[in-house]
Amino acid sequence: MKLTMTKALAALCLTVGMMSSAQAAVEGYKLYQDTCAKCHGESGHADNFRGYLYFARNFNSKEWQQKMSDADILQRINQGPRIMPSYEKSLSDDQKSALIRVIREFGRN
Q: 32: domain range?
């Protein structure tokens, strides 16, 4: 009985952890859509009017993904290169981390 309860509790913890991870991914993508997609495009290709107008970064570029560290991306989120606004004070550290994960995911596709 004790072993069965332990297994059930372990399975529950694993399921909750997976749901939290999935929920975080959805929230990160929504944040990207609300904050970044207007210039970098819904799929990260920067293939929309603002992307072309402002020479926005294509996050799907394998070369760029390999060249940039997460710290480099964070610096750009915080400082806002060229015409991009700074998000240093308007986004939390967790939100910035979520955006970096979304940007990295574009490079995997």
A: 23-108
